[in-house]
User: Fold this.
Amino acid sequence: MPGNPAASKIWESISMKIFGVEFMPVGAPALSAADLSVIRLWIATGAIDSGACNTSTCDTNNYTYSGAIAPLMQTYCTGCHYSASSAGGSLIDYTSVKNAAVNGRLIGDISHATGYNAMPLGSIMLEDCQITQVKKWVAAGALDN
Ligand code: HEC
Assistant:
């Protein structure tokens, strides 16, 4: 029930252990308070599918083009930026991503900086960790690595 944790089966099933009722997960400890609050907040804010975002696998020390940047573009950007004739241009390959990086738009747009176009368009911002990966890649010369 987007926006309504109390009426959501998922919330009901995982939160019962807080009240001493044996339910989900069966035969395992209750989720941590931190995990419960993340899930509750996700439901309360609309249970939105914001893509394959997973901060636990984002490593800010990994900022190579092939290991971090290209996968980020594929997950969040190339659905719209798939060719040179796409609105806003292509982000499908190294050269096009590098061009967006060197003119400052890549970082300005994903940081939602004033005077830039907030990207991904119509979606929530990338995670801080992902933005850091892009910033580090650009600062290191936006290499094809
Ligand atoms: C839902 C479609 C959509 C998605 C997803 C999207 N964009 Fe865009 N993007 C656009 C459109 C449309 C424009 C043209 C905006 C304009 O010119 O007003 C644009 C423009 C741009 C530009 C051109 C420069 C500029 O600021 O005008 C860059 C760079 C850009 N996007 C980066 C990204 C990045 C990076 C992502 C992923 C993190 C992304 N976009 C995701 C639709 C999208």
Summary: Residues 55-139 form one domain. The first helix runs from residue 9 to 15.
